[in-house]
Amino acid sequence: MYSYVARQAILNVDEEIVGYELLFRDGVENAFPDICPDQATSQILTSNHLTKGLESITDGKCTYINFFEDTLINRFPTSLDPKSVVIEILESVEISEELLDACRALKKQGYKLALDDHNFDPVWDIFLPYIDTIKVDVRQFNILQISKYVRRIAGFGVKLLAEKVETREEFEQLKTLGFQYYQGYFFARPEVLKSKQIKANKLNLLQLISQASRIDMDIDKISQILAQDVALSYKLLRFINSAGFNSNQKITSLKHAIVYMGEAEVKKFISLLALANLSGDKPDEIMVLSLARARFCSHIAQARGDDENPPMAFLVGMLSLVDALLDETMDTLATKLPVADEIKQGLIEQKGVLGLYLKLALNYEKAQWDEAETLSMAIRVPINDIHEYYQESLAWADKIRNGERGGK
């Protein structure tokens, strides 16, 4: 399963690339599909930002993303780093006090806002104190109309970005009018990028939506649902690893992640997934194996009496195959997650106590019985017990595959 996104370069007056606008695509065809704008934005965030990270798509340059009415009012942009993103307000959104309040709040949090395909309508003037950039479609207006508008808004201190620039002559004319940024076929056409996507179980997502709709969320139940879906667990951790949270916080369990986020952010995360219609078929073999490893590592930690490690051990097993799901190296992926150093060490180097648990799971998968027995003695858990834990973990993962529910 793959996700697609197009990026189009944004350049300065020296024709240097300073950012990229991301455009939703649902296939290799370079055209916007027939879906609502809110869903398109949510798909970009869940399929790209919460999986690989926007920085890998834009080569670390500034990212311009379109947001429609609902995603703005519900503060979805706050899952992004305000230092590296520009929030584009689509020209077709309905102006309201709610929208104006959302723009004020985003601006106060340090986000840069842009009016996309601005039509020069004075009704938008009340937004200008919060706007950093105005994007003008130069195919819609002649040079005289553009010049008049530029003079009218000169006191607001906004920057101007010319869209759909197609010739050198247009570029030079627009420079004399004071445009700082440029986008169009004269510089670069949108480029479609394809990346591997993690599938989430539809039943798990529906159960999360149900929990999020309750007045009092059941944190234990949400943790249990997440514990049965590697895709949702990974995206949750990526969601936390954003500017809205303390980057020094190290997550040790799924329940810890949910409590740390707080109810409002958990509901935002679930809404983002729901709006993107994140769905899929039954988990494939890689995902089932991830679940089995998670259960097995947790069993071993509990057998050893590790007070802190059972939830961390579960995360190590759960995330141990994310590199295979996303076709990236584990050390690259682990740096994108706000997990405890012990978890990162276990995932990347298979060292430390958590690394031993994961290594033991791998021994069983490869039928390396001598190595398994050596490890069982090192961690002081009887080999017969370990065998039972492994069989039970496989059975538990199969139950999840078949849609049944069981506690962690």
What's the helix and strand layout?
Blueprint: E1 2-12, E2 17-25, H1 37-49, H2 54-57, E3 62-67, H3 69-73, E4 85-89, H4 97-108, E5 112-115, E6 133-137, H5 143-152, E7 159-163, H6 168-176, E8 181-182, E9 191-196, H7 202-212, H8 219-226, H9 230-240, H10 254-261, H11 263-275, H12 285-303, H13 309-319, H14 322-326, H15 330-334, H16 341-348, H17 352-365, H18 369-379, H19 383-401
Helix pairs in contact: 7-8, 7-11, 8-10, 12-13, 12-17, 12-19, 13-16, 13-17, 16-17, 17-18
Explain what this protein looks like in three dimensions.
The protein has 408 residues and is α/β, with parallel strands linked by helices. The protein has two domains: 2-196, EAL domain (TIM Barrel), CATH 3.20.20; 199-408, Hypothetical protein af1432 (Orthogonal Bundle), CATH 1.10.3210. It is built from 19 helices and nine strands. It has helices at 37-49, 54-57, 69-73, 97-108, 143-152, 168-176, 202-212, 219-226, 230-240, 254-261, 263-275, 285-303, 309-319, 322-326, 330-334, 341-348, 352-365, 369-379, 383-401, and strands at 2-12, 17-25, 62-67, 85-89, 112-115, 133-137, 159-163, 181-182, 191-196. The protein has an eight-stranded mixed β-barrel. α8 (219-226) packs across α10 and α12 (285-303) runs antiparallel to α19. It is elongated and about 85 Å long. The relative contact order is 0.10.
